[in-house]
Structures are given as C-alpha cells and as structure tokens.
Amino acid sequence: MDWGTELWDARERRATLPERRRETEDQFEVLERHTQWGLDLLDRYVKFVKERTEVEQAYAKQLRSLVKKYMPKRPGKDDPESKFSQQQSFVQILQEVNDFAGQRELVAENLSVHVCLELAKYSQEMKQERKMHFQEGRRAQQQLESGFKQLENSKRKFERDCREAEKAAQTAERLDQDINATKADVEKAKQQAHLRSHMAEESKNEYAAQLQRFNRDQAHFYFSQMPQIFNKLQDMDERRATHLGAGYRLLSEAELQVVPIIAKCLEGMKVAADAVDAKNDSQVLIELHKSGFARPGDVEFEDFSQPMNRVPSDSSLGTPSDGRPELRGPGRSRAKRWPFSKRNKTVVTEDFSHLPPEQQRKRLQQQLEERNRELQKEIDQREALKKMKDVYEKTPQMGDPASLEPRITETLNNIERLKLEVQKYEAWLAEAESRVLSNRGDTLGRHTRPPDPPASAPPDSSSNSNNGSQDKESSEEPPPEEGQDAPIYTEFDEDFEEEPASPIGHCVAIYHFEGSSEGTISMAEGEDLSLMEEDKGDGWTRVRRKQGGEGYVPTSYLRVTLN
Fold it and tell me: Do 529 and 507 touch, CB atoms closer than 8 A?
C-alpha cells in the first residue's frame, strides 16, 4: 500500500484530461498539507521537550538552593548538633534531596541532547528533503503542462489547416464549374487547393506526433514519475513519524533511567527517618554538656529572729550546730549554684579551664588526638623526605639533595613543636581528669564546727613575697575534725574572677568587726559591702564600704555573693 497508486481514483469511467490535471493538483495539495502538518507536529514536540527541560532544570536548581539554605554551615566536627541522630538524619535527607536534584538535572540533560537537539536537526533535514520532492513534482507537472500546450497548438493548427484546405478545394471546384472562369484562374485555384491540402496533411502528421509524444509523457508522469515522487514523500513522512515515535519513547526512557537512583534516594530518606534515636540523643546531650560538678548541698537557714544567737539547724549548709560562723575552706569562700546564678562572661583559655571539668577533659582529649595526628603526619613526611634525599644522593640526575634540606629542617621544627604541645596537653588532661574524679558525687558534706578566726595579720599591699608567705604559713587552719568534708565547689572560682579594680561581688557582714590593725577596716553587723578580692587562703577578704574606705575583714564574718 503506497501513495503512488492508492491515492488515485479507481473509478471505471475515464476521466477527462482537465479532470486528471485537477485531480493531480488536489493530490499534491493533500500531500503538501499532510507532510507540512507532520513537520509542524515534530517541531511542536521539540518545543514541548525544550520547555520540559527548562522546567526540570529550574526544579533541580530550586532543590539545590533549598538544600544549600538548610544545610548546616559549620563543619560536622565543629558543630555539636551534628552528634544528634535527628540532625544527622536531617542532613542525610538534605543530601538525598540534593542527589534527587542531580537526577532531575540528568533527565533534563538527556532530553536536551537526545530529543531536542537530534529531533531539531532531523526536522531541518526533513524540511529540505520535502522541499526537494515537491520541487521535483512541480517540475514534472510543468513539463507535462508544456507538452499539453504544444499538443493544443498543433491540434489547433491542424484544425485551421483542414478548414483552409477544405475551403480551397471548394473554391477550385466552383471555378472549375464556372463557364466564365478562365483556365488560368481554374489552374491557380487547383494549385491553391493542393497546397492547402498538403499543409493540412503536414499539420495532421505534426499533431499526431505531438499527441503520441504527449501521451507517452503523460503515461510516464502518471504511472512512473508522480508515483515515485508520492512514494518518496510517503517514505519521508513514515521516517519522520518513526523518529517522532522514538522521541516519544525517549521521554519515558529518560525518566525510567533515573528511577533506580531516585528509588535509592527515597530509600535513603526512609533509612534516615528510621535512624532517629531519641534515647541515644538524650545520651549525646549528657556527653556533650556533662559538667563534672557535684550537686550543691542544702541552703543554710538564717534565723533573723535571734540576730546574735542563731538557732542551729541540722539542715543548714553554712551554720554549724554551735552557732559559730562557718569558715570557708582555705582559698575558697562559698558555694556556686550555676543553675540559679548568672555567670560572668568567661575568657576562653588554651587549657579550656573556662569550661566545666567534664567538658574541659573532652576538649583536651580532642586537642591531644589532633596534635598526635599532626605529629604522626610530620613524622611520615620526614621519613619520606629522608628517603627522597637518599634517592637523590644515589641518583644525582633525579634532583639535588640540598634542595630538600629546608623542608627537612621545617619538618623537624614542626615535630619538636608538636611534641611540646602533646606534652602540654597531656599534663592538662591528667590534671583535668583528676579534677573530674575529685568532683564526682551527688551530695556534699557540711562543716560541723567552724575553725578559729584567722590568727595571722591581714595582708599588706606593700609587703613583699616573704611576708606574704609568712602570713600564709601563720594562717594555716587546723585539719577539719572527723566527718568534715571539703567545702562546696572548691576548684573553680577562677571562672568567676574579674579584674581586681572593680567589685567582683557583694557581701553582708554577719558579725560586727572592729578593724584596729593595719590594713583592716571596720564593719557593722548587717552592713552591705562590695567584694573586691576573695580569700587567698589566709582567712582575710578585701572589701569596700559604701561610705568609702577599703580593707580586709575576716572571711568567716561575711556572707558572700559573687556577681
């Protein structure tokens, strides 16, 4: 079944020549409209895929922007939140979404290359081929039209010559019968009739030859030339339809190609969701923020109904049973209750002493591990440089051994520096671990009996280091009695220390004190004072009165609150 034969009318009647010509024009117009429609459909599909590609690219771009917006900015090792399974799962979901966006970009790329570019190129080739086939058909039609015009001309000439010959013959016969006509006129008429008859015979022969030629050309046109052209157009249109169908298939194949990867992305999201472990996150929070501090003891009872003779309370923290004021331990003045107090702004130190004991130990352990890794890396680099130097010495053409000396020296310096840092962090870590062990426990004991007031003289700002050491020796307190425990939070007052020039807290005088010796200051019971310097272990605390004046008072006579 082909266009070259099936498109023609199969009716029994013989169509006239004008009808055949008109039918040929109609079939040409039919094929021209159909092939043009096919190429327009191809171009429309290419445009559709191109816009689909732009949609996929925009979708992928927006997904990547979304992932970038919500992806944690800090590296995982520096972000404490990255240790929680919830955060890890969220980051994994973001990564899977990013991979999903990559698959959408792959779909867009495949559609652009294998559909848009190839079909657009093929469409241009089809347009050129179609143009060539229709030009060939138009030329064949024009040739047939030209032959038909020649046939019509020869036919009209033959018809005209026949009429002229018949007229000349009638004229000659009339003159021959006319008795008045001369013999010369009769002969002339007969010669003219013979000439006209000869011309009509020649026109007849020419018309017959032209008719034979036209019929041959017309048969070639309708039975050979035009069917071939129509069949070429049919073949072109079928190839176009086949390529268009393949383009339709590529649209689905581009999606099917990424389906396994997308399925893995979705499965990864599901795995991330299942990986959320609430119990483990609770444990991670403990590990991240475990302070190592012991929990505070009971708050002391202050009996304001008997100012000078307080009622003892077994549950009080700082008031012993005999009513005497409590002596804060050597070098320490009071307990810290971080959950309820406002912490001062701390200064970050290299040994992380600004952190709670447990966190300090962990940070020191991390730093120590990093230094050990760096040290091992430098050692490996030194060994590699030594081997390279040996090779250069054995094979001078490979390089100059002296050129490696600066790098070897630099590596040795780095190794020495890192070894010193490792020793430093090891010492800090050992100290931190001992502090963690010393501060473990859920409860703290209480003083059962305060020691005697300080026997040493108050510090003097002009005294030298020897006097200071003598004061410290004279102010040493007797060992606590049996059952006496260490004072609350005796290791971390440095977290709260401020510049000596400004108050670091305030305190209230529990008892009246008459500052009679040099360097001391008097205070009345219940007087509010500014704390300027904590007890250094000698039993004296430096305070400032609101009315002016600054000096030392017994630490055991104060109730101190730090800023």
Answer: yes
Exposure of 469 by Cβ count < 10 A (0-12 exposed, 13-18 middle, 19+ buried)? exposed
- The answer to whether the CB of 240 falls within 8 A of the CB of 37 is no
**Contact between 230 and 23 (Cβ < 8 Å):** no
In the structure encoding, which two tokens stand for residue 233, read together? 């157009």
pLDDT one-digit tens code per residue, 20-65? 667 677 778 888 899 999 999 999 999 999 999 999 999 999 999 9
Helical segments of 82-224, H only: 85-111, 118-177, 183-220
Host H or E run for residue 427: helix 405-438
Angstrom distance (rounded) from CA 263 to CA 88: 20
Rounded to an integer, what distance in angstroms lies between the CA atom of residue 143 and that of residue 217? 9
The strands making up 528-533's β-sheet, listed across from edge to edge, are 550-554, 540-545, 528-533, 505-509, 558-562
Helix (H) / strand (E) containing 22: helix 17-70
Alpha-carbon distance 508 to 304, whole Å? 14
The single-letter DSSP state of residue 321 is: T
User: Count of residues for the chain?
Assistant: 563
Q: Taking the CB of residue 177, how many other CB atoms lie within 10 A of it?
A: 9
The overall pTM is greater than 0.85:
no
At 326-340, the pLDDT tens digits run 444 434 444 444 444
Residue 327 is encoded by which pair of tokens? 């002596």
**Amino acid of residue 240:** R
- In 3-state terms, what secondary structure has residue 550? strand
Query: Hey, what long-range contacts does 140-149 have (CB within 8 A, 24 or more apart)?
Result: 140/221, 140/225, 140/226, 140/229, 141/24, 141/28, 141/221, 143/217, 143/221, 144/217, 144/218, 144/221, 147/213, 147/214, 147/217, 147/218, 148/17, 148/214, 148/218
Say how far apart CA 517 and CA 533 lie, in whole Å: 19
SS3 505: strand
DSSP string, 487-502: PSS-S-GGGG---TTS
Q: Are 318 and 447 within 8 A, CB to CB? A: yes
pLDDT, one tens digit per residue, over 243-299 is 999 999 999 999 999 999 999 999 999 999 999 999 999 988 888 887 766 677 778
